[in-house]
Amino acid sequence: MYRTHTCGELRISHIGQQVMLSGWVQRIRNLGAMTFIDLRDRYGVTQIVIDESSSSAVKDIADRLGREFVVQVKGIVIERASKNSKLATGDIEVKADVINMLNISEIPPFTIEDDTDGGDELRMRYRYLDLRRNTVKNALLLRHRMAQEVRKYLDHQNFIEVETPFLIKSTPEGARDFVVPSRMHPGEFYALPQSPQTFKQLLMVAGFDRYFQIVKCFRDEDLRADRQPEFTQIDCEMSFVEREDVLNTFEGLIKHLFLQVKGINFTEPFPRMSYSEAMERFGSDKPDLRFGMEFIELGGMLKGKGFGVFDNAEYIGGICVQGCAEYTRKQMDELTEFVKRPQVGASGLVYIRYNADGTVKSTIDKFYTSEDLMSVANKMGAKLGDLILILAGAKNKTLSALSELRLEMGNRLGLRTKDVFVPLWVVDFPLLEWDDEAQRFFAMHHPFTSPHPEDIHLFKTDPASIRANAYDLVINGVEIGGGSIRIFDRELQQTMFDALGFTKEEAEKQFGFLLNAFRYGAPPHGGIAFGFDRLCALFGGSDSIRDYIAFPKNNAGRDVMIDSPSYISQQQLNELSIEIRRKE
Q1: How far apart are CA 416 and CA 406, in angstroms?
Q2: Predicted model pTM
Q3: 3-state class of 128 per DSSP?
């Protein structure tokens, strides 16, 4: 055998024992009379010592070792003279009697330390080396633990894990599909699933009333820190349930994860907020509730005073920032430039300082009296030393810009701390979204989301006002999961397809298998899917999901380690009956 113990296992109680360890050389310190080797494996680091009494063979091998060499060490556990409290094994060391060099290593392209000198692209090219670093290794260990706790909780709740196909048919809704050509059926293509949505509904028709799957999903969309072309969902569905049943069950899952993994016990129910309320108060359907700065609508107070920007605005809203009245001119200019960025979209920024001496000062002093400004401060709930920031314009655009400004201030003031978690259920989303370019409605979630029963009549008169029986779980401004009660009635499903502009023939072609299943006694059902990568990153205190995926893609959707995507041979193209048209 190569080892009797791991490199993170030995303690004071092992002193005097003969042991064998195997691992990688983390570092070597040659002090002349003594040589120290830090030996590392997945479990930790143990210090190996070679001194004057060691054999010449051991000294000779130690002199030839380098970083990341793979070695086996046999020796006696002894107490360290100079203990290291930062290491779990820091009370002991192993005096080497034998060192076997199992494999050599070239000099790594970056230092394999927590604070490495390797940039993102270099570390992704050598991901198998990056995975040796504690920060990345621990991220994957956290992911493993969370996956086990998910399975444990759902199994206890009588859910069964069922695998669904990866090669399915392309559907027109949602993000772009990744497609896979079929050799056996020339000119035809599979699609990789964006989610197992239709299959889990079919499982409900089949009578498997509680299904789950920790499953890979695929979407061909623009990437960012919390997106990858392939990602993992905790995908779940339940039969004979209403919305409250689903929310209570999966609120229980999240509470279980927090308690078992983070040691945080949520004893109170997660708060609920409607989509419309979230938009009015925070300008976002995933509000970060770790801090305040709620929006206050100010149109009634600020219009009609001769200031054209406000007089002509559809919406005027502000936030109150505590203790920032003394912001410098430079800081205010920075905020103004921030809101003018294309991704924020405001035309400018108005501020009111409620100074510590009780005076109010604003960029719009010539249009408003001190009494006017004080009235605004009072409505905003401002106190001495606070700063009021105001945006105006088209309502939806301004709400969005104000949301970005609020989050920016939260970041600047250190209010979005990683060790505080505030969950929220957002409910009652619009069922449909109108697209001006396409001149038709699209499903805000997906075509199988059920409307509120009392809103069904609005399909004929006001489709935009129909509320979806849908829900998202938001934690710290991140959408962690979302789902809905599904349509299980064939006629209502056809009504939904009609609202989305599908003819009966198109609906039958795309989703006939599901509509046919509904003919044979579909039960009421609903479910949810959690972004497992996002959930792991949230628990790990990171904004990026990449370190919680063993082999991620970069921001261009490339795997630079294996150089994918890549071209395939002409022979393969011929077998697939595919001709490539190169862009100019």
Answers
A1: 11
A2: 0.92
A3: helix
